[in-house]
Amino acid sequence: MKNKRLITILGIAAVILLIPFIAMQFTNEVNWTMADFVIGGMLLFGTGFLCELIIRKTKSVKQRMAICAAILILLVLVWAELAVGIFNTPFSGS
Q1: For the CA atoms of 48, 51, 52, 58, what is the dihedral angle to 10 degrees?
Q2: Rounded to whole angstroms, how far apart are CA atoms 91 and 83?
Q3: How many domains does the chain contain in total?
Q4: What is the mean pLDDT of the chain?
Q5: To the nearest 5 percent, what fractions of the chain are helix, strand and coil?
Q6: Which of 10, 59, 76, 78 has the fewest CB atoms nearer than 10 Å to its CB?
Q7: Please, is 10 exposed, middle or buried when counting C-beta atoms within 10 Å of its C-beta (0-12, 13-18, 19+)?
């Protein structure tokens, strides 16, 4: 059961990474470099592993959901910052 859940989480991360890869084949609007895929993979797979660790180590369902939700919100904020620079840090994509 635990390994099946981990494989599902990692599969979803891989499918998310395939979306820009496939889009690059059909349009010039999507232009990711290898570094973009590496960073995106690290963010997605890292988030998946971290959520799986929280699910395995935390007993309370409410705590699991709250911590995983916080991790996912952090992922979205970091991804948005790297993509378009919503916080205007030196790491922004714009």
Answers
A1: 180
A2: 9
A3: 1
A4: 92
A5: 80, 0, 20
A6: 59
A7: middle
Cβ neighbours of residue 91 under 8 Å, at least 6 residues apart? 81, 82, 85
Kindly state whether residue 90 falls inside one of the protein's structural domains.
no
pLDDT per residue as tens, the chain (94 positions):
668 998 998 899 999 999 999 999 999 999 999 999 999 999 999 999 999 999 999 999 999 999 999 999 999 999 999 988 888 888 776 6
**Full residue range of the structural domain in which residue 60 is found:** 2-84
In a domain? residue 89 = no
1's tokens: 């059961």
Any domain includes 33: yes
The rounded Cα 63 to chain-centroid distance in angstroms is 21
Answer whether residue 78 is part of any domain: yes
